[in-house]
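Need tokens for this chain, all 542 residues.
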Amino acid sequence: MNDKSFNLLHEKWIVVMKPDGSTEEVSLLGLFSNAHHFLRLAGELPTQDIAVLRLLLAIMHAVFARYDLDGQWAPISSPYDALERWKTLWDAGALPEDTIENYLLRYEDRFYLFHPDRPFYQVASLGEATDYSAAKLNGELSESGNKSRLFPQRAGSAKSGLTCAEAARWLLYVNAFDDTSAKPKKKGLPSPGAGWLGKLGIIAAVGDNLYETLLLNLVLLKDGGDELWGAERPVWEAETVRSGERTEIVVPDNPSALLTLQSRRLLLRRQEKAVTGYSLLGGDFFPKENALNEQMTLWRKVVDKNSKLPQYHPKRHDPARQLWRDFSALAGQAEGGRRPGVVTWLARLKIDNLIPRSHFRFQTAAVKYGDKDFFVDDVFGDSISFSGDLLTDLGASWVHRIIDEINTTGMLVEHLGHLGQNVARAEGSSDGNAERETVKEQAFFSLDRPFRSWLEAIDPHRDDLDQVCDNWWEQARRIVRRIGGDIVSRCGPRAFTGRYLSERGTEVQRHYSVPEAYQWFLYRTSTRQALKTVKKGGKDNG
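Here are the structure tokens for all 542 residues:
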């Protein structure tokens, strides 16, 4: 089929949630016209929503870096222009429909999902490539020819085809989060790794509605500083489509190019009105190290062993680790830390009194890959909310103390884990490692909601820093000690009597019993100081 069909500007394909909780599909133009009426994006997966959000942001950057709200040519030429442009957009309460529509209609022909020469986000003449079925395109299934889901979301004929609307959403997802299973068709080509978003610790700001979410993530100054972005170059404005397999490029210097990065070369296949599969090759990539133009990721500092120079790597999310435990990375207070660009941008808006919000909410979306990123193992997300003042100078001392409290909480959990391990040893386990990890997981689950509530309630203007932190210490200690007491209460007589076990790699015998383990647990969780020290002359069973 060489006809043009399913134009994303006009056809309904983006899933949004309305204030009453219902969902509907809207077109690109429909979304921008009514963003203030929609609660949020509501596609099949949070990772899919992030991919769609980045497309929307690319359009926003392409428009408002050049035009004012009235559609007049007015390129941003200074930090003042950028901040004024953003403030005008925020105060308007809705996006300027005509300005966005006039821009998009100039590129209308580039937004056809099916097009003989320029299909959206695809390469018309892909050549030799890896072919996949619709089940692989659908991220809810994420199946390949040799790996099927045990309990798939769809079955039978529902797996063999997707609607054009579904395929459009999953096209963005695969480009962003594709695994590394596809082999190169040409010899000697470098590996691009997973899709760009799959390499990141994605984080995005969340507003009270979709309009606010779009604006909160519209970072018009790099890292919220005074550096202007390069000229906007989204993929649909390019005169030609890059088609080379596994092509290393420089990191784009403008948001719209980075947000529309073509990590994969794709071409959808269809029969009648159903998308039945796609063909794929590796696409554009660049080193993830120091790719600091990316504004929507957590970072971690790594010192290069050879050059001894520091580098910043994207910090992938851990599905077993709550986002608040990485608060130091979010706040940029980890060792040699760097805040995500979107966080620094919001801090700038708050400091300059351009945004009246008292609290900021951030969400994550991530993919957990299998060995060497060869397949998608899981998809997950998280969120966190706290006072915007924590991002200002007023909140600097608070941030340090919050991080201290998180570290203290981690130590409480570690000692609880040691209790669980030593009780298991007393009951007959050879090492108790599994029991230790189970107990720690239980503890963080029990601490999760209380910590989120504590963090969200902090008001640096009103609260006493020491009192707030002491309140959390007492609450966390009470929760952890309660779990410890429950562990002990379930033990039988054998565990109270205990037994001797040889220390690993030695012939030294050590006695493990519930009374000994519990005594030391109570001591080590009695005070903040006791968490870090051992009573002189004593034996630490933890």
